[in-house]
Amino acid sequence: MKVLAVFGTRPEAIKMCPLIKELHNCEKIELITCLTGQHDEMVQQVLKIFNICVDYNLKIMKENQTLILLTIHVLEKFDGILEKEKPDIILVHGDTTSAMACAMAGFYRKIPVGHVEAGLRTYNIYSPYPEEFNRQMIDIISGFYFAPTKESADNLLREGKNKDDIYITGNTVIDALKTTVNLEYKSSYDEWKGNSKLLLLTMHRRENIGKPMQDVFRAVKRIIREYSDVKVIYPVHLNPNVRKIAYQELGKEKNILLTEPVNPLEFHNLINMSYLVLTDSGGIQEEAPALGKPVLVLRNTTERMEGVLAGTLKLIGTDTDNVYCEIIRLLEDKNEYEHMSKSKNPYGDGKASKRILDVLLNI
């Protein structure tokens, strides 16, 4: 069986690399890998950690590229690879615009698509934007659904997908943590952190750029000015609009460290050494609970409701006062902190990649 695995962003790479390693080690699979290239520099860090070389790189990113142009470029370039390689199945991940475009290209050539991390939903087409549309579109096209949880599988069943095509696998990001997290890891930030409680912050979503981001940053500033034993690390996304707001609002605070994006080895170990995580990211909502870290989600909706129901995540939005109060709650209420940090992680046992391989071998 010839399998073409495609990914482009750093979160996609972190989640696809364990699966790619599993497929690569199987003699019955002829594996072709394709990088779309929208997070090229950051993805190369991930590939190095997992010791993976890709066969193709579309290099589709252009400055200030719109979603429409991005979709066109991916369709055009990826179609050429499909014409040359003629795979038996295409594996796409998650909810990026490039994943959606690659799935569309496969559909147009009548090549089956397998969706890794299928079935996540908010059912609000603009939240997150454009990811909610992308993931629903991919699931319309796909023939095989690798759902990370029962909840995501149930979403697919309610939408009328064939139950025989849905496989509950767990999330491959838990597989990745086995490679990256080391209790003896010496971080370059250990000395700066000292004995402080470390808050790990990430924020980059399109819908949060502007006032929502400013409101969150102002809450964080209030916290570090009132709590001398708290420090914040924020690996700032490369999006220039995010960077402008981050450095304007937080750049002069001595207990807030703004860094360049860090590789997943460093980042996963940063999660592990943190006290709690503030994020609008998707993947971190799965990674941090696996390491026993409470997550305050800086969004009004999440496609990972199983984490909220399990008690590992809390949706808090972006209002300054609310963000401030929720951080204080976890800093001061030991029972609340213990409840969130010790709730069972719903995202699997680290064997998702093996389960996906087993499905492919039985197709």
Q: Can you put this structure into words, describing what you see?
A:
- The chain is α/β, with parallel strands linked by helices and 363 residues long.
- Helix content is 48%, strand content 15%.
- It contains 16 helices and 13 strands.
- A seven-stranded parallel sheet has the order 3-2-1-4-5-6-7, with helices on both faces. Strands 10-9-8-11-12-13 form a six-stranded parallel sheet, with helices on both faces.
- The longest helix is centred in the first third of the chain and has 19 residues, at 67-85.
- The termini are close together.
Main β sheet profile: 7 strands, parallel
Residue-averaged pLDDT, rounded?
Answer: 95
Tell me the number of helical segments per DSSP (H or I, 4 or more residues long): 16
Beta-strand portion reads 15-25%
In terms of quaternary structure, the protein is: single chain
Briefly note the structural class of the backbone: alpha/beta
* Count of strand segments: 13
Amino- and carboxy-terminal Cα gap: 9 Å
Strands side by side in the biggest sheet: 3-2-1-4-5-6-7
